[in-house]
Amino acid sequence: MKIKALIVEDEINNQKLIEKYLTAYCPYIHIIGLTTGVNDTLAFLENNKPEVAFMDISLTDGNAFDLLAKLNDINFEIIFITSHEKYAIQAFRLHALDYILKPVNPDDLIKCCKLLRDKKLNSIEKLKHLVHNTGEAPKIAIHSFESIDFVEIKHIIRLESDENYTRLFTASGKPYLSSKSIKYYEELLEPFGFFRVHKSHVINTAYIVSVNKNDSGNVVVRDNTDIPIARRRKQEFLDFLAMTFKG
Fold this sequence. Notes:
This protein is α+β, with helices and mostly antiparallel strands. The protein folds into 2 domains: 3-128, Rossmann fold, CATH 3.40.50; 134-244, CATH 2.40.50.1020. 34% of the residues lie in helices and 34% in strands. The chain is elongated, with a radius of gyration of 20 Å.
């Protein structure tokens, strides 16, 4: 298992040192980007989806808290690496996985990365238990206030966020309203060919009818719903389709 990582560090020497330590001691960490400030990190996140960001607090054009405040949703773990001990409380309010003080000790970084890896592995195992395999086709349990419905994953066309709830639309035409968040379903269904194209939409790529690749990209699925593709997810989505549907 490789964990995609972004290093956000304004001091190039520290950036190279963190990259060196991760490469040498944590081979399961796959570095996909190096940035130095708020603006270049936002630009990077438009087209890339790291699973973890190793982040300094003081950046070239602002600070990490400015950066995180500009994101609609934070879909990655945060590990702060900084000289400023005074920001620890603020960092953990953002649910940071860890807070490492400079100068960076490789042992601290290794320990933190092992914690990250264990968390990812535990999440995968939990998700496996949530998918009910009957021997014919895997199903998921959809929890609502009134019932628990078991639906075959292959029959789910798309999911749409409805504030803290999620609406699921199926090939039979029957909709479901779940008390779980769309992020919950994104993680649960990703191994089955589902992709979150927008903060409010997850689609089953098996039901794609067409994809519009222009600036205001959109995807049409089997139930004739026209779904927007977020700019920051567009390139990753197109790459995913190219790998999944060759030809």
